[in-house]
Amino acid sequence: MADPTRRLQDEPGPPTTGPLAGWTVGITAARRADELAALLQRRGANVLRAPALRIVPLADDTELLTATRALIADPPDLAVATTGIGFRGWLEAADGWDLGEDLRAVLGEGAVLARGPKAKGAIRAAGLRESFSAATESSAEVLSHLLDRGVEGCRIAVQLHGAPLAGFVESLRAAGAEVVEVPVYRWLPPADLAPLDRLLDATCAGALDAVTFTSAPAAISLFERAEQRGRTAELLHALRRDVLAVCVGPVTAAPFDQRDIPTVWPERMRLGAMVQTLTAALPERARRFQVAGHALELRGQAALVDGELRPVPPAGMALLRTLARRPGWVVPRADLLRALPGSGDDEHAVETAMTRLRQALGAPRLITTVVKRGYRLTLEH
What we know:
Blueprint: H1 4-9, E1 24-27, H2 33-42, E2 46-49, E3 54-55, H3 62-73, E4 78-81, H4 84-96, H5 100-109, E5 111-114, H6 117-125, E6 130-133, H7 139-149, E7 155-161, H8 166-174, E8 178-184, E9 187-188, H9 194-205, E10 210-213, H10 216-228, H11 232-241, E11 244-247, H12 250-257, E12 263-264, H13 271-281, E13 287-291, E14 294-299, E15 302-305, E16 308-311, H14 314-325, E17 331-332, H15 333-339, H16 348-361, E18 367-370, E19 374-377
Parallel strand pairs: 1-2, 1-10, 4-5, 4-7, 5-6, 7-8, 10-11, 11-12
Antiparallel strand pairs: 3-9, 13-14, 14-15, 15-16, 17-19, 18-19
C-alpha cells in the first residue's frame, strides 16, 4: 500500500499564512464542497477532498415518486419539512412529474411544520404557510410539539434529507400516527471510491489533522468503507487520538457518539459556523516549546519556528512528533526508527530523515545529537 503521507505531500503546496496554516483538513461533503474548501483554504489550511457519498438525482428517484403519488392519493393531515433544500427539491421533482400542483394542494389542506427558518422559507416560497417552526432548528423540538398536540390517528408525511429519522418516526408511530417517509436526496456510496480510500488511508496514518462532516450518512459511509477494507480499528484509533472529527451539528455527530469518538460542532448548524469552530479548535492542539533560543510550535503537518511556517517532510514530522513527546529527554535511535513509516531496520534512515528535518526547520540546533544514544529537543528549562 502506498504511503498516504507521501501522496499528500505531492499535492500543490499549502498556504503559509492564516490561523490554519500548517494543518491539513479532509472534506467528505458531496454538496457545497467547493465552498467549504474555499473557507478552509482562506484560513490557510491544506485541504484533501473526498466525497463520501453521491446523491441520487431526484428526477430518477422512484422511491420519491412512489411516496409522492401515495400522498396525493391519500392526503396527509400533517407534513414535516426538515430542510429547505430538501423541501424545495421535492416540489421541483413533483413539477417535473406533472404532480406539483396536486402535491401543493394536498399539503395546503393540512398543517405543514418546519424544522427551522430555511425549511420555513421553502414552505412559504411554495405558496404554503407553516403552522409551526422550531426555534432551535432541531427535530426534537418538532417531535415534542407534535406529541404535545397529539398525533393518534393522524397521517403524517415526513420529508427526509439523505438519512432516516429513525427515532423521530418511531416516536410518532408509537404515539399512534401513520407516518409516510418522503426520501428526498437519497445518498449512495461514491461511484469512484479512490478519493475516499485516500482520505481513509491518510486519516489512519495521521496525515490529516481534522476531517469535516456535513451529514451523518457521510460519516457512516466512511466507517462502512473502513470495515470493507479491514481498517476499522485503525480508523477508530486515529479519530479518538490524533484526528479531530468536526461536524456541522449534533445529528451529524451521532455516528461518532455511538463509537465513543469525540467531536466538535457549532451551536448554529451552518457551514461557516463549523469552519469557525474548526479554526478555534485546531490551534489549541498545537504544542509549543522554547528550544535553543527559538519558539517552536508543532502544527499538524508543519512547524512554526519563531512564528515562521516551516513545512516539514512526513518522515521528518514523524521524528519531530516523537521527540516532542519526550521534550528535553534523549530518544533512542531505535524508537525513532519505529516512528518512521516504511523504514524497516535501516538505522541510516533515521540519520537521513533527521538531516532533512533540520534543514526544513532552518535552525539545526533545535535538535541535539547525543553520541551513541540518540537525539533530543534542545529544550530550555
